[in-house]
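Entry 14. Ran structure prediction on the chain below.
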Amino acid sequence: MSKFNILIAGNNDPISSKGIDLLKAEPSFSVEVNMNLKAEDAMIDASRNAHAIIVRSGAKVSAKVLEAAPNLKVVGRAGVGVDNIDVAVASKRGVVVMNTPGGNTISTAEQAFTLMMALSRKTPQAHATIVSGKWDRAKFKGTEVFEKTLVVLGMGRIGAEFAKRAKAFGMNIIAYDPYLSKNRAESLGVTLCEDLDAAIVQADYITMHMPLTPETKHMINAKRLLTLKKTCRIINCARGGLIDDAALAQALTDGTIAGAALDVFEVEPPPADYPLLSAPNTVFTPHLGASTEEAQENVGIEIAEVIKAHLLQGTVVNAVNMPNVDPKVLAEIGPFLKFGELLGRLVSQFAPARSNVVRINYSGKVGSGDTTLISRAVLKGFLERAVGAEQVNYINANGVAENLGLRFTESRLPEASEFTDLIEVIAKNDTESASISGTFFGNEPRIVKINSHRIEARPEGTLLFIENIDRPGMIAAYSTILGKNQVNIADMSLSRDKESGTALTLLTLDSTPCAEVLAELEKIQGISKLHCVAV
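Output, structure tokens:
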């Protein structure tokens, strides 16, 4: 019987003892627990003979750790975020990375709800006066949440659980989530608002449950804070960076809004001179969203079970970097998995708002076999912008889509194609659609069609999609701006539907333009759509 060495590593952030006991009970496992591995050198030494490493957020599995562990098969994260694991290097070395995306749902929802109530009733401040010997009831007059308007930003698992609790308290709930379908909103008993600005101006309370992406960073900023009711209170137990903390501090100081309760910050831990710490009408906790006995026990047991199953049976569950497939099949479809994920990610950039259907059409040889994993790769890529890359993988992609009310279908086109293999990904809502198609020229992937436009482009570097009126001078206009800002064009593909109609340009760039450059491009008269994607 093979013997597997399992390292449970941490930095004063222990794994549930029940999860550890589950692993120790397996005769073929040798389990070492070390909760004092802050330094990288210490982590390297402890990992040298490991077949599996389990961590929480405190211990880092860096590239050097991975390279120093030749026997390593799997890294497990007891929690959601895998930013303390070098997933790219793990993938190159054939190491599976797993997480536990559902283990802290209830814990985080309850923490956010607790903060809302504590903020409403000024509970921490009242407690502080009592223990200091004071009794000042008039100073701590609170406000009820009953019949108040709650805006939930992000209706994934945690947002939905928060909404259930708010509904029980008699709150009127508005949901903003670009990826939530109308049917799913109705089933949750919430009012769907398609515009962020239109949603938040109605809010007495805002609770945030979005992933942190380039699109969501500082979604609550100085400009939007000025549009809120003066009675509005904001709760964030999701990710630091969703709110501009400096702008929030100023809004609280100026009385622009009534209060804020945060479990997460842009800088963690926040330094002593952090502006928010001296702002009035606040409640803070040190990133405790997942810190309950039940949540820690759940993720500890869950990660132990999936690590055990992988080492003993070879199964892969909740992998963030690998599908559950045997090596022979993986060798055959591997290129299509990576390309399919990219196609899904690209089409999500220009899909119509509130898309409720994703369809994949296969033609040629690729459609003659089992396409389940390729389809899951496409869906994973598409959903990353909706829920965050760390929240969706090959295993849970279908479930995540179902939770968002997104219908997913695939078909095989019977008619012959001019390409040996072709994958077409279509995203649509009730009135609009967007599509992208790709194939392989030999071993090289190519994008060959976007919507109705025939193009040819390698999916590499940074891709800039520009849709504009077909007229002289357009190419010169955006090329001048890119050149002026030292952004080099490596390749260009042009297409138009008809003369003087709509033209599409796909540029491959050597570097990613900053937000200011993209804003300047969008101001060019005649450009209707512009999307920039780093492949």
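The longest helix spans residues 327-350. Will compare against last week's run tomorrow.
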